[in-house]
Amino acid sequence: MSTDESTDESTDESTTPLLEVTDLRKSFGDQEVLRDIDFTVEQGTVTVLLGPSGSGKTTVLRSLNALEVPDAGVVRIEDVEVDFGQARSRRDADRDLARLRRQSAMVFQAHHLFPHRTVLQNLTEGPIHAQGRPEAEVVPEARVLLEQVGLADREDAYPSQLSGGQQQRVGIARALALKPRLMLFDEPTSALDPELVGEVLGVMKDLAAEGWTMVVVTHEIRFAQQVADQVLFLDDGVIAERGPASQVIEDPREARTRQFLHRIL
Ligand code: ADP
User: Fold this and answer.
1) How many angstroms is it from 135 CA to the middle of ligand 1?
2) How far is 187 from 110, CA to CA, in rounded Å?
3) Which segments within 42-188 are labelled E, that is strand?
4) How close is the Cα of 28 to the center of ligand 1, in Å?
5) How far is CA 224 from CA 80, 180, 199, in A?
6) Where is the ABC transporter domain (predicted)?
7) For residue range 169-204, what is the model confidence (pLDDT) as tens digits?
8) How many whole angstroms from 62 Cα to the centroid of ligand 1?
9) What pLDDT does 5 receive?
10) Contact by Cβ (8 Å): 1, 211
11) How far is CA 219 from the centre of its chain?
12) Is-contact 170 162, C-beta < 8 A?
């Protein structure tokens, strides 16, 4: 799908991006870690955030679902828009953040599974208890998701009985069970042994092919080349370069993108 920025201006409903980030800014104490962060993500596309350690990738990702609250800027996911710079009552702010959080689901670097719950219970916990959906509906859906990530036969296992790659696949299925509009991945394979990385990236490629809208922080350049519709290269808190993977990775324009790619390739 096109990531052409000309669509940004469009008022046509069919080309309105699913995600729109405008002028995001964030400091931790005196340290400004993000500034002038602007980008859009079209429905059904994959955006990969690349950049050196400390460049702000995770902070951008966490800002999208208000795990990190930016100092200023606007995040809109579909019809939910939060202007972080706007003065609001505490109650209104909390309500807006809760609405934004429901639009996306995050897969973390190290899985955050509930250790004393089975695989199936890990998937059904959020939909039943946080979303108040009926168990009779949620359980069959969870089984379909486990099938999708190749773990249909492990629903009664506990996380400690699974490999790191299997745990991470449960983490992905658990995020999908929340039926988010947007899937966020924060270095989902970086804590895995190298031989387990492929199975997790394989699941992510399947999700991309199914049309999930995804924003992914990763150092897996081959994955980015194969799957990303859009690559954002961050350096020192700004988007230093952006474009299709074929341009940013294979033919970078900026010296700092080239330096980064030389270091990691
Ligand atoms: P990346 O994901 O690209 O490695 P991060 O978004 O994690 O970068 O971090 C960007 C900068 O913000 C770094 O300098 C980091 O030390 C700082 N930072 C991130 N989170 C916090 C925090 N909770 N408190 C203070 N500084 C933070």
Assistant:
1) 39
2) 9
3) 46-50, 72-77, 80-83, 104-107, 182-186
4) 8
5) 28, 22, 16
6) 19-261
7) 999 999 999 999 999 999 999 999 999 999 999 999
8) 11
9) 47
10) no
11) 14
12) yes
Length of the chain: 265
Residue 85, ligand 1, Cβ within 6 A: no
Take residue 6 and report the two structure tokens written for it.
């000309």
Quick one: which of 206, 166, 176, 205 has its CA closest to 48? 205
Structure tokens, 223 = 């994955």
CA 178 to chain centroid, in Å, comes to 14
Q: Which of ligand 1's atoms lies nearest the C-alpha of 60?
A: 6
Alpha-carbon Rg of the chain, whole angstroms? Answer: 18
Q: Does ligand 1 come within 6 angstroms of the Cβ of 154?
A: no
CA distance 219 to 126: 29
81, 103, 166, 222, 258 from 265: Cα distances, Å: 38, 34, 27, 10, 10
Judged by DSSP in three states, 11 sits in coil
How far apart CA 7 and CA 86 sit, in angstroms, is: 26
Strands 19-28 and 31-41 turn out to be: antiparallel
CA–CA dist 58, 72 (Å, integer): 17
Q: Probe ligand 1: pick from 59, 106, 216, 238, max atoms within 8 Å of CB?
A: 59
Residue 56 CB less than 6 A away from ligand 1: yes
pLDDT at 10 over 50: no
User: Within a 10 A sphere around the Cβ of 56, how many other Cβ atoms?
Assistant: 24
pTM for the full predicted model: 0.92
Cα separation, 141 vs 212, whole angstroms: 17
